[in-house]
Amino acid sequence: MVGVLLLLLLLPFLLYIAAPQIRSMLSSGVCTSTIQLPGKVAVVTGANTGIGKETAKELARRGARVYLACRDVQKGELVAREIQMMTGNQQVLVRKLDLADTKSIRAFAKRFLEEEKHLHILINNAGVMMCPYSKTADGFEMHMGVNHLGHFLLTHLLLEKLKESAPSRVVNVSSLAHHLGRIHFHNLQGEKFYQSGLAYCHSKLANILFTQELARRLKGSGITVYSVHPGTVNSELVRHSALMRWIWWIFSFFIKTPQQGAQTSLYCALTEGLEVLSGNHFSDCHVAWVSAQARNETVARRLWDVSCDLLGIPVDWLMMAAGPKRSLK
Ligand SMILES: NC(=O)c1ccc[n+]([C@@H]2O[C@H](COP(=O)([O-])OP(=O)(O)OC[C@H]3O[C@@H](n4cnc5c(N)ncnc54)[C@H](OP(=O)(O)O)[C@@H]3O)[C@@H](O)[C@H]2O)c1
Questions:
Q1: For a pocket test of ligand 1, which of 45, 68, 71 has the largest count of ligand atoms closer than 8 A to its C-beta?
Q2: Region 30-53: what's the mean pLDDT?
Q3: Mean pLDDT of 82-108
Q4: Quick one: which of 102, 95, 89 has its CA closest to 47?
Q5: What pLDDT is attached to residue 315?
Q6: Taking all residues of the chain, what is their mean pLDDT, rounded to a whole number?
Q7: What are the Cα distances from residue 27, in Å, to 23, 59, 109, 231, 280?
Q8: Is the pLDDT of residue 167 over 60?
Q9: In the chain, which end has fewer C-beta atoms inside a 10 angstrom radius, N or C?
Q10: What would the mean pLDDT of 256-285 be, rounded to a whole number?
């Protein structure tokens, strides 16, 4: 009896001691590519904190010119200076990008296209989770608007530059949470029913469907596309939910650090020979299983068309070689 009590008392201490080992067991998957990136240009959205910051830092360490696309330029500048100091790479630049406003996305793209000749790596990383019901400047539900539609428009606007710079890559940061997602076309903006946790899952499913459809349409173009689950990562993502903040705090010793969380994005952006796996979903630097709806090509095509319609983009901006023209009806 005394032994059991003693064990219970010691348990938190033992867990604390074992935390680094447990964390490394849970965070397998390291980008081992040694590729260097002098002369390469990368854009990372949401790069002022969390996984995006660590992704940008590693790309800068390898010599790329890295654009931190952030909604808060001041936060971005502080991080750019930190990355410059840590990596010795001065070509870390901050540009304003608010994915909750299509005007801001268009302004970002316009400036980028004017000032840059190339774009080799686009990391669509920024994300929001469990926001109370709210809408973007264009009236889209916040999760769908920022996580999916914002990145859809950004990719559309930067695509010619990616094509000119081929071989080039797009990495869409999704989540394991997509398994709980569904694309409800009759309620895409959450106006009929809304649950903040599920809204996040739906948007992360949209990231995977977009990845697959984009990869299909870009076959043979020299641009390849990947979606990733970064793992469960100790970041600011849970800021909108007190319960999730509490759970993250309790488990913070065991879950991935942002640097560990960046590994799969880096793996997909950098690993040589990965082109044949364009369109796949990755977790811990391996191809990962996705939900049934995430594999549904009909849903992916319809989401593509609806996204174009919402954003005012011609549906056929990127037709598959032999793809038929479709109407939205
Ligand atoms: N953390 C996890 O366990 C986990 C698990 C699965 C997937 N993910 C995915 O990983 C990605 C990165 O998340 P994280 O964990 O690093 O979270 P984070 O620390 O909260 O970082 C999110 C980034 O997105 C930016 N952002 C939010 N709304 C934006 C907007 N409207 N326009 C431009 N940028 C915006 C944030 O900028 P501000 O700082 O200005 O808000 C921040 O830089 C997300 O796509 C997330 O869904 C994370």
A1: 71
A2: 98
A3: 98
A4: 95
A5: 85
A6: 92
A7: 6, 20, 35, 7, 20
A8: yes
A9: C
A10: 97
- Could you give the CA distance from residue 71 to residue 94 in angstroms, rounded to a whole number? 10
Determine which one of 16, 67, 133, 200 is catalytic.
Answer: 200
Q: How far is 226 from 275, CA to CA, in rounded Å?
A: 9
The pick from 23, 45, 51 for probing ligand 1's pocket by mutation, whose C-beta has the most ligand atoms within 8 angstroms, reads: 51
Q: Which tokens in the block code for residue 273?
A: 């020979």
**Residue 200 bears catalytic tag:** yes
Model confidence at 225: pLDDT above 50: yes
- The full set of domains in the chain, from first to last, is 34-312 (3.40.50.720)
Q: Percent of the chain at pLDDT above 90?
A: 82
Amino acid identity of 20?
A: P
- The amino acid occupying position 275 is E
